[in-house]
Design a protein that fits this description.
alpha+beta; Thrombin, subunit H; Rossmann fold; seven-stranded mixed beta sheet; 26 strands; about 40% helix
Length: about 800
């Protein structure tokens, strides 16, 4: 039975590695072990000592890392090689985990204090569902991983070792990936080696043998068809969601595209369940944890966060890592699952919610018609589905029960399906899917350390962008200057704590050569000034679509489109209807309606604000739709619509931005109307009063008496009585920080909630609140203060790389 101890080789080429004897003179190893050298040395237990070997075949590329050595004399005596059993070559077709697998070689971790080599038998399970797209086998150790070393992996030297499963050689170890606490190694499948014509020719020339790779877990015809389709689908998901494009395709700023793994920042999540289980402490539930730690062991997750907080990026990261079979070890409950990204904003209009059999088609997978009959049903039946439902808040309020019923029906039929759903805060209650095992989490604002990391990555991506290659030598100077500016301007740091606003901050800073607005509305205006062609005008390319549109006409047309979508509770519009709306608006601008198609094409291609999706048009970001809808609503005097819809989270950003678009008198009247509606309607009172409070940040000017009225209503909600109330209060933003009390007269539960509110809002002003509670007698309060100060103050370890 293989492996045999006298076939395990130490190989010395460009570096020290391992290998496995295919015969008395043949050694299979990794190509990077021998490097570019033509010879190497090999030695085995019970052998003749170091044997000089010639490299007769090697291949080093993305798919393969292997080399074949031929010793000039036998590496082992005849009486040893005569006892070798025939070597079986195998491969795994299914995704079932294989136990009792092993790789034996000579890693760094086994060297003694004098540097002498010894062998290590790494045993564990092979996980065929991991690193599928990388084309590698993953061997996960079942023992205690070795401690990390200062400069090299403790597994350095194991490269080239044979990987065995069921007594058959299935791979050649090539790497120990970082981020897995030294608990796994990866191997090239021997199928890749055996299929290489150069290898087969070399093997035949030197030993007159061929290689037959047997399937260790043979598939039926249907299973093989399913497997092949799944591999193609996984590759599509990894490619489709594997990049992030900032500021919009074809925008005046130019494209800045970065790999998802670089763009993804493992932000902090805080559990928002309103009722704690008796055996869970207040600290455990409320303090934030990085994504991997927060979601550990969870397979039903409701993720809540403000617009632009990073929810969709997190969903795409989960999709890509699941498709690649490369999720962090903490998220092992999602490993080997097939991801399906379901953007509700694109599916709940005319199409409705898809049935399982039509899901891939509705998700616009190009090869949906080629899926084997019943493939998706079989995936879900076996508990291998990962449903990533994005944007519950982007569905009209009266349609959200349909989404819930759809999910409940699917989970009742396929109870082992994992689901991650996203929503803005309060669009659905924390217990929206009670009884189905969902845990609610809120996405916390970025800490100052996270903001710094985000800015570093944004400018690094800019340096790699073809559209900005001319600017790469200056990019780092602007990065350093921006970080320094944020450190001295707390209001800007608070804005930049939102990833989308941080992106706009970087873009405006870059284009304005060091200028930054002081409030969210001014930041959006400055960014849209760039997007809507000011740079095109400077570059004399404003008429490329057969029409010249200045910024004001573009804003007018975009406002009309956004207004129609908002009135109709839609997030997309048909191309034909958009053309009719544009034609009508052009007539008001004294432009012939025949120019409608040219104008719409200009908006799609040049603005960077719209994008085309098959036969429909949508805004690149919901924030842009909200901005233009708010402007149009104010411009046309639709204040009643705004007030009447203020209770619906779908319209919260529209209301806030509408206040920002108002003149002082209009803003004051609108805020008073919000206050009075909240007074009249107890069921909506808290939400509307807090929305009015949050809108103060967007207003240019407000009558001081009106501001006092608004803050007075918010003050009635202070102190928050428990963690659930703290979550709601924190949504109002920095305006409530001045209303939070000190510790005098507070119950322990209220003190915990006050500190949690400050932690979730963040910013320098929150630190002052936390300092009032740092000596509190309750350990949960003190722990929350410590956590909040660390993250808000940017303590070491605050930033995290997205890869675990």
């Amino acid at each position: 039975m293989n492996p045999h101890h006298s076939r395990v080789a130490a190989v010395f080429g460009a570096r020290q590695g391992s290998g496995y004897l295919l015969g008395p003179r043949l050694v299979l190893t990794a190509a990077h072990v021998v490097g570019e050298k033509d010879t190497a040395e090999a030695v085995v237990f019970g052998g003749v000592g170091e044997a000089i070997c010639d490299v007769v075949w090697r291949r080093k590329d993305d798919a393969c890392d292997a080399a074949l050595l031929v010793a000039r004399a036998p590496v082992v005596p005849d009486d040893v090689s005569d006892r070798f059993a025939p070597l079986r070559w195998g491969e795994l077709i299914r995704l079932d985990t294989q136990e009792n697998c092993q790789a034996i070689g000579f890693p760094l971790v086994q060297r003694d204090e004098r540097g002498n080599l010894d062998s290590e038998q790494l045993s564990g399970r092979v996980k065929p569902g991991s690193s599928i797209l990388g084309g590698r086998y993953v061997l996960e150790s079942s023992g205690t991983p070795p401690e990390p070393t200062a400069h090299r992996s403790p597994w350095s030297g194991l490269s080239g070792a044979g990987l065995f499963c069921q007594g058959a050689l299935i791979g050649v170890v090539i790497t120990a990936p970082t981020g897995w606490h030294n608990g796994r190694v990866e191997a090239i499948p021997v199928r890749v080696i055996a299929d290489d014509p150069g290898f087969r020719e070399a093997l035949d020339r030197h030993c007159g043998a061929d290689v037959a790779v047997e399937a260790l877990d043979e598939l039926s015809d249907r299973e093989r068809e399913d497997h092949e389709f799944e591999v193609r689908y996984r590759g599509y998901v990894a490619h489709r969601y594997g990049q992030v494009e900032t500021m919009g395709h074809g925008s005046a700023l130019g494209r800045i595209v970065w790999p998802l793994d670089t763009a993804f920042l493992a932000l902090e999540l805080a559990e928002t369940a309103p009722h704690r289980k008796p055996d869970r402490s207040a600290v455990e539930v409320a303090t934030g944890k990085r994504v991997q730690a927060a979601l550990q062991g969870r397979s039903r997750i409701l993720l809540q966060g403000a617009a632009g907080s990073g929810k969709t990026t997190l969903m795409h990261w989960l999709a890509v890592r699941a498709a690649q079979g490369d999720l962090p070890s903490e998220l092992g409950q999602l490993q080997n699952r097939v991801p399906f990204v379901v953007p509700l904003r694109a599916l709940t209009g005319s199409q409705g919610l898809p049935q399982v059999g039509r899901l891939l088609g509705e998700l616009q997978y190009p090869a949906a018609d080629n899926q084997p009959a019943g493939w998706l049903t079989r995936v879900l039946d076996r508990g291998r589905g990962l449903l990533l439902v994005d944007g519950i808040d982007e569905v009209q309020h009266d349609q959200r029960p349909r989404v819930r019923s759809w999910l409940e029906g699917l989970l009742s039929l396929y109870p082992d399906t994992a689901v991650v759903a996203t929503s803005r805060p309060s669009a659905v209650p924390d217990d929206w899917l009670a009884g189905y095992g969902f845990t609610a989490f809120s996405v916390l604002p970025m800490s100052p350390a996270d903001v710094g990391t985000f800015i570093d990555r944004w400018f690094a991506a800019l340096r790699e962008s073809e559209d900005w290659s001319w600017f790469s030598h200056q990019a780092m100077d602007y990065r350093r200057a921006l970080r320094a500016a944020l450190d001295t301007r707390p209001s800007l740091m608070e804005m930049a704590a939102n990833p989308r606003l941080c992106t706009l901050t970087c873009a405006v800073w870059l284009e304005k050569r060091g200028y930054l607005p002081d409030d969210p509305m001014s930041l959006h205006r400055a960014a849209l000034n760039l997007l809507l062609g000011r740079r095109d005008m400077q570059r004399a390319i404003a008429s490329t679509e057969g029409i010249t549109l200045g910024q004001e006409p573009q804003e007018h047309l975009l406002g009309a489109l956004a207004l129609w979508m908002t009135f109709n509770g839609a997030t997309e519009i048909s191309r034909s209807r958009a053309s009719r709306i544009v034609a009508a608006e052009l007539a008001q601008l004294d432009v012939h309606p025949a120019k409608a198609e040219s104008a719409l094409r200009h908006l799609l291609i040049r603005s960077g604000v719209l994008r085309k999706m098959d036969s429909t048009i949508t805004f690149q970001h919901s924030t842009f739709q909200d901005f233009f809808a708010a402007h149009a609503l104010v411009d046309r005097g639709h204040f009643g619509f705004l007030i009447n819809h203020a209770h619906d989270p779908q319209y919260e950003d529209v209301v806030r931005m509408a206040v920002g678009h108002c003149r002082e008198r209009e803003a004051s009247q609108m805020l008073l109307a919000l206050v009075k509606r909240g007074d009249r309607e107890p069921e909506h009172r808290t939400r509307i009063h807090l929305l009015a409070t949050a809108s103060l940040e967007y207003a240019t000017r407000v009558d001081p008496e009106v501001s006092k009225e608004v803050l007075g209503r918010a003050e009635a909600l202070v102190p928050p009585r428990d963690d659930a109330a703290a979550n709601v209060l924190a949504d109002a933003g920095a305006a409530v920080l001045d209303l939070l009390p000190g510790l005098d007269g507070l119950t322990v539960e209220e003190a915990r909630a006050v500190v949690l509110t400050a932690c979730k809002i963040g910013g320098p002003a929150a630190v002052a609140v936390l300092e009032l509670f740092q000596g509190h007698a309750d350990p949960a309060v003190r722990e929350r203060v410590r956590w909040g100060r660390n993250r808000i103050g940017g303590a070491p370890g605050g930033a995290a790389n997205g890869r675990a």
